[in-house]
Amino acid sequence: MVKAAARARHCSVNELVVTALARELGYDLNAKPPRVSEQKPIPLIDEQSHAAA
């Protein structure tokens, strides 16, 4: 069934699965990625405060 759906959309099974998962998780697949200057650094998890929580 998944292979038939992928064939109908002219994409691989992997693309179909990733797209479905991204939609399920609420990602906007049509959004343009931010420019490098607009990207915010990812905060690192402080292990001590994380362990205390």
Please supply descriptive tags for the structure shown above.
elongated; 53 residues; mainly alpha
Count the strands?
0
Strand content: under 5%
Q: What profile does the largest beta sheet have?
A: none
Global Rg: 18 Å
By helix and strand content, what is the structural category?
mainly alpha
Helix run count: 3
First and last CA, distance: 44 Å
Shape: elongated
Overall pLDDT confidence: 76
Low-confidence stretches: none
Describe this protein's structure.
Residues 31-53 are annotated as: Disordered. With 53 residues, this protein is mainly α. 49% of the residues lie in helices and 0% in strands. The longest helix has 12 residues, at 13-24. The chain is elongated, with a radius of gyration of 18 Å. The termini are far apart. The model has no long low-confidence stretch (mean pLDDT 76).
Layout of strands and helices, then pairs:
Blueprint: H1 2-9, H2 13-24, H3 47-52
Short description:
This protein has 3 helices and no strands.
